[in-house]
Amino acid sequence: MFIAMSMIPAGDTAGKLLSSAHEASPLYVAWSRFVIGSLIALPLVRAGTLRLMRDWRIWLRAMLLTGGITNIQFALQTAPVADVFAAFFVGPIFSYVLSVVLLKERVTPLRSVLMALGFLGVLLVVRPGFQASSGLGFALVAGLFYGAFLTASRWLSAVGRPGSLLFTQLFLSAVLMTPFCITLIPPLSGTMMTLTLASAVFSMGGNFLLLFAYARADATTLAPFVYFQLISAVILGWLVFHDLPDAVTIAGLFLIIGAGLASALLNRRSVKLT
């Protein structure tokens, strides 16, 4: 989980270098990630994978992921990595709300309070109406798409094998974006090819390692480690772009991490009791 949660921000750091330093379109960054990820995930294809692609719900899930990844690339083009990841963490909060409303999952007052605190942390980072930027606006939209994707993944978890679901989300997202992105491929110098591969491989590798992690430990045990992404994002933003969050953003990061850890530990305790 530590490696996975470091690889995902590393992939987005490479994506930010592509769009901000080398002027590649954020659409190209998202599309190339799906195309290369699909090729890497080909060994996961099984006979039932093609059958899954006839299910409209699988296409809906892929569209939600496409919206999330595309918007976060637009966010990274102008906003610091740590700020983008903090705003993006509205996703688990939105997923919680959707899971309660649509999937009828059990809600507890304490967990709802912790989710509200996490949302307050996101607001401290984004500061709508004060120092809000278009980049953080894209990050929020990306988080909402990703929250819906998480809920859809929970909804469809029994439909297919994890490897098949991973391949379909990458392949169908590539299919959906190809008509809009095929003309956006920049001149592929050595640096551009290296960053494009790094963006895709780190992101795909991090998500692939998650499959192995969740196959070997309970989700409640692993959930707290998800917040290591924020720490990794801060470190990478400082090392690569010399960006350090200001005091208010750091307070928001602590609120998001603290509320998330408390929620995960609360969930773990309730599982043990049952």
Automatic annotation (TrEMBL):
It holds the Pfam family EamA. It comes from the Bacteria. SUPFAM superfamilies: Multidrug resistance efflux transporter EmrE (SSF103481). Keywords: Membrane, Transmembrane, Transmembrane helix. The chain crosses the membrane at residues 28-46, 58-76, 82-103, 110-130, 136-153, 165-185, 191-215, 222-241, 247-266. InterPro entries: EamA_dom, EmrE-like. Residues 14-126, 134-259 form the EamA domain. GO terms for cellular component: membrane. This is Carboxylate/amino acid/amine transporter. It comes from Shimia thalassica.
